[in-house]
Amino acid sequence: MSQVCLAEEHLLNLIRKLPPGVRKLPSEEELCRQLDVSRATLREALGQLARAGFITKRHGVGNMVNLSVLNTPMRFDEEFSMRRLLKSAGEAGTRRFAPVPEAKEAAAFIERMTSGTGGAEIKRPWLIQESQHFINGRPSVWTFNFYPDTGVRLKEEDIQGLSFRELVTAVTGAELSHTIKAFIPVSADRSLAEFFGIAEKTPLLMWYLRNFGMDDGLLSAGVTLFNPKTVTLNSFNRWE
User: Fold this and answer.
1) Residue 41 CB coordination number (10 Å)
2) Whole-angstrom distance, CA of residue 123 vs CA of residue 148
3) Which of 56, 112, 169, 204 is deepest in the core (most CB within 10 A)?
């Protein structure tokens, strides 16, 4: 994890430990001392927290914490990672598998989920990377990312601790620029019902993601499915 991301997480921990009624963060000088980071790293981390809505910088006052935003769980907007989304709802756990050449069953599952979404834009054969996410020990999110089979064959230990951006770069060798998500209603088939512990044909929400590089070329795609019994998604909007 980068120094900025670590500083961001440490800042969030500090924010959550502020005494009741206190919204103002310490000065940048004091924060640099507490976090043992440079002023440049701190400012970038504060900027990320501001974009995510956790804090607002007020001229002549300082960095103020927005408790309404801090206390909103399961956010899915641009600045919010899957890891943070899970942690906001309870004790989070993830089992991440290494990318592997497509197996018949997994490929058929992805084809069913992406029917009509443009998934065929990723040329076959695929490398498929699966992650299983848990909240308080309960299966809550299931993701499948798929890449052209020309991607790097990583081992499972190579991908633990990587952010999604870092994972895409490690597999494709290209820098991730942006992601476009489509929200698609689906019905739980047998595999989804068994994983989530729900009845078959239960309505589910799925994200279909397309991930693009700096040249606007398609690097990978993915499906993310949510257990409706444990996940209720929220989004943040800042009015400028």
Assistant:
1) 18
2) 6
3) 204
Q: Would you state the structure tokens that stand for residue 62, as one six-digit string?
A: 């300082």
The rounded Cα 227 to chain-centroid distance in angstroms is: 16
Tokens of 28: 């940048």
Q: What is the pairing mode between strands 92-96 and 62-65?
A: unpaired
Chain segment 129-142, per-residue pLDDT in tens: 999 999 999 999 99
Q: In a 10 Å sphere around its CB, with 0-12 CB exposed, 13-18 middle and 19+ buried, how is residue 28 labelled?
A: middle
Distance CA 224, CA 181 (A): 10
The distance from CA 3 to its chain's CA centroid, rounded to whole angstroms, is 18
Q: How confident is the model at residue 119 (pLDDT cuts 50, 70, 90)?
A: low
